[in-house]
Amino acid sequence: AVKAGKRGTFRFYDRQMSEGLAERRQLEGDLRRAIERGELELHYQPSVDLKTGEIAGFEALARWRHPVRGNVPPSLFISIAEECGLIHPIGEWSLTEACRQAATWPGQLKIAVNLSPVQFSGPDLVGMVRGVLERTGLPAHRLELEITEQMLLDSGEATLAILRDLKALGLQVAMDDFGTGYSSLNYLRSFPFDRIKVDRSFVTGLGSGAQNTAIVRAVIDIARVLGMRTTAEGIETADQHRVLALLGCDEVQGYLFSRPVPAEEARALIGRWCAEDRRAKTLAA
Ligand code: C2E
Ligand code: MG
Ligand code: MG
Ligand code: MG
């Protein structure tokens, strides 16, 4: 009976697994056609300068509206794309699209684009980025590439060399989701990041518990000493905003200011924001 039970249990997991795999394989096929069919789109979420209250730039976030399933979350389709290599064409598409948009924005607004660790093992990432900057005409200093700590897990010399070559193009490099990895502090020694993005999980706890505030304060202090700028992710409340201003965080991003929105809305947001009384959004003032 024990044996049968075990086998039954195994079969149960096995079936779930193959259903999951079948679903992923189907999505993979759909994803292959999604770019050509224009189902992929970028949304843009503003990042706000805490001192001036002005929009400092936007982060591009990929969206997939599947014709049958509706919106597929990036956490799912990006991981499928990473598994099957589609992240390379998708990564180039999103970078091109984001830079093309940003090149039409007024002033010095910057654009942040997420890079997948898999893109570092693909063919000529640096050449791809350089080509996109040339084709879109976006000045390199207005582009910021976001990478997660996951990428640095096996940060061999090869990865670090690519990062250095990317920076040599004149763009900025940010460490995304800081604090969620196993060795966050260690990575700060391996590469001169321009920015640290404090993960939303720490921001959520701000104000509720001294530990969270102490951790965020420490991260902001370390960043300052290392000459890196800080962005706090996922600000949803005015309380979190206030605490981050007190702690001296440079930029804030979150639903409190805006959700990620389509390109036209981002453009409208830029216009509206500039027209409004800036002081209303300036806590430091
Ligand atoms: P991320 O780069 O850390 O992006 C921040 C995520 O937090 C986004 O989720 C954003 O919509 C969400 N967010 C922003 N503000 C708030 C808030 O106040 N509250 C809450 N609850 N969430 C907030 P999204 O768009 O679902 O993207 C998830 C992840 O997928 C991104 O995390 C990024 O790692 C990845 N991703 C998205 N687009 C791309 C892409 O074009 N290329 C690559 N390689 N990865 C991407
Ligand atoms: Mg990001
Ligand atoms: Mg993040
Ligand atoms: Mg994230």
UniProtKB/TrEMBL annotation:
Tree of life domain: Bacteria
Keywords recorded for this protein, A-Z: Membrane, Transmembrane, Transmembrane helix
UniProt keyword annotation of Transmembrane present: yes
Residues annotated as domain EAL: 24-274
Protein name listed in UniProt: GGDEF-domain containing protein
Organism field: Methylobacterium terrae
Classification of source organism: Bacteria, Pseudomonadati, Pseudomonadota, Alphaproteobacteria, Hyphomicrobiales
Residues of the full protein shown: 478 to 762 of 762
